[in-house]
């Protein structure tokens, strides 16, 4: 009776933890293989995400682990700096997340443009799909995202001429087909996650028909854990590594906190404490880095499965980490039976779900500027790399916001005699300066001008300086000095207007 009082939701949380474990298992392994690291490291990150991050405060029903959204960045980092340096990068990113959470910066991630985040996920999705299509055929993928996409026709020709490649592709395609069709089966069947069912079926078919398909390489859990040594920390002397650390930090944090906002909409329980959730993610990544494992984020697929399975408290996500630990300790050899094209199929499916097709169509109809930012961010990630692609998207978002904030109206009244009157209203910023100057310089040089700025809400330094220079030039030919009515000057006492001659 006392246990029921202490843990009133134990039954629901226990059942939910098993569901999340079954969802997480193939994803942990698949993300690790796609990232170019030992499969066991994906399990390590899942274990830490469940037991370490799961115990901490933040978002009670959100589940953390290795994410498909970081595979591209991890793969690039391992290729450039080596696997030992991955631990240093993840550790540094975790410490940065802890610092940002302590400084209460978590809530500011909600201010990032949704179009940039969705563009980031779309770009990642495209690179994942392109790269995993090579893996599904048992071929080596090119290094860059653009080369992956451009090389697909040639890869298709190579695959059609190889029996082994066709067999591998059949397993990958079958895995995707099972995952897509699984949702149409009766709800009783769907209690088994589609990804797990697809992997099990692919494994059975591969073994039954002795197909010439590559399987997961297993080295053992303890052998895979390699804490970074002094040589790895020596990579910090390379300035390029700091850009990667910042990219890991920002992308992992943004993905986790956006996931938290989405999970909050799925249940009626306690709301996310964003700063504490950021610290929980930071603590988890710091531990993952110390173990030389993959970085973690909160993952919407596992989190939504957790909520849908009836979880009520954080006990479900902690228990899912325990089940992953028991699996990694007791049954690691079973990983060697899993065909690689099956994992590639899971990631192609995951990459497809990262591309927000409906949102792109909706944005194009209602906010074409936002749709453009989304598309440019995605294309930049494919064409350049993850970090620079996100920076391009953020820069476009800032420019668009600044442009839209610079609403300006210029009205010219010329009665044929007397001074020409020019009225400016709105926000005069440097972005609108060419338009202002073109209109003012077109005014008659031999007529006096009255420039009324009282309707401006904002006048930046660049515009003020340019207007002063224009007034000086206009008056240089002997015309009366330009008379200016200044914008409203707000003081502690009362607003006043001033009329001056420039």
UniProtKB/TrEMBL annotation:
UniProt membrane topology term: Multi-pass membrane protein
Superkingdom in the source lineage: Bacteria
Domain SLC26A/SulP transporter, chain residue ranges per copy: 10-377
Primary location class: membrane
The species this protein was found in: Streptomyces cellulosae
Membrane-traversing stretches: 14-34, 41-61, 81-99, 111-134, 165-182, 194-216, 236-258, 322-352, 372-399
Keyword annotations of the record: Membrane, Transmembrane, Transmembrane helix
Protein name per the record: SulP family inorganic anion transporter
């Amino acid at each position: 009776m006392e246990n029921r009082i202490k843990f009133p939701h134990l039954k629901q949380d226990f059942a939910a933890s098993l569901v999340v474990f079954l969802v997480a298992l193939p994803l942990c392994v698949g993300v690790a293989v796609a990232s170019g690291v030992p499969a066991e490291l994906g399990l390590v990150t899942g274990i830490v995400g469940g037991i370490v991050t799961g115990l901490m405060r933040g978002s009670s029903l959100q589940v953390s682990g290795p994410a498909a959204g970081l595979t591209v960045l991890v793969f690039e980092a391992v290729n450039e700096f080596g696997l030992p340096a991955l631990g240093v990068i993840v550790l540094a990113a975790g410490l940065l997340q802890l610092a940002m959470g302590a400084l209460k910066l978590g809530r500011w991630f909600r201010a990032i443009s949704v179009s940039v985040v969705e563009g980031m996920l779309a770009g990642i999705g495209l690179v994942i799909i392109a790269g995993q299509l090579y893996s599904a055929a048992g071929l080596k993928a090119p290094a860059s995202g653009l080369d992956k996409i451009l090389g697909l026709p040639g890869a298709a020709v190579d695959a059609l001429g190889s029996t082994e490649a066709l067999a591998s592709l059949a397993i990958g395609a079958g895995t995707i087909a099972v995952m897509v069709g699984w949702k149409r089966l009766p709800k009783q069947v769907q209690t088994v996650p589609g990804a797990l069912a697809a992997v099990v079926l692919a494994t059975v078919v591969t073994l039954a028909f002795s197909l010439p398909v590559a399987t997961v390489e297993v080295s053992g859990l303890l052998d895979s854990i390699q804490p970074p040594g002094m040589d790895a920390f020596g990579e910090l002397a390379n300035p390029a590594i700091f850009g990667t650390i910042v990219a890991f930090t920002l992308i992992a944090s943004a993905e986790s906190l956006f996931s938290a906002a989405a999970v909050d909409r799925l249940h009626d329980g306690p709301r996310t404490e964003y700063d504490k959730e950021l610290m929980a993610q930071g603590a988890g990544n710091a531990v993952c880095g110390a173990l030389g494992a993959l970085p973690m984020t909160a993952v919407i697929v596992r989190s939504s499965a957790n909520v849908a399975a009836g979880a009520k408290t954080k006990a479900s996500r902690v228990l899912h980490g325990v089940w992953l630990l028991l699996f990694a300790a007791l049954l690691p050899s079973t990983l060697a039976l899993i065909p690689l094209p099956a994992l590639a199929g899971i990631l192609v499916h995951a990459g497809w779900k990262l591309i927000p097709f409906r949102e792109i169509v909706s944005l194009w109809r209602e906010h074409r500027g936002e749709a453009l930012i989304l598309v440019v961010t995605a294309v930049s990630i494919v064409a350049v790399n993850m970090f620079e692609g996100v920076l391009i998207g953020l820069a476009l978002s800032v420019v668009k916001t600044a442009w839209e904030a610079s609403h300006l109206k210029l009205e010219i009244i010329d009665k044929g005699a007397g001074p020409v009157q020019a009225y400016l209203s709105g926000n005069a910023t440097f972005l609108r300066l060419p338009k202002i100057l073109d209109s003012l310089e077109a005014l008659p040089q031999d007529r006096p001008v009255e420039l009324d700025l009282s309707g401006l809400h904002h006048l930046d330094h660049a515009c003020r300086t340019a207007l002063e220079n224009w007034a000086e030039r206009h008056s240089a030919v002997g015309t009366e000095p330009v008379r200016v009515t200044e914008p409203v000057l707000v003081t502690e006492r009362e607003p006043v207007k001033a009329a001056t001659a420039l």
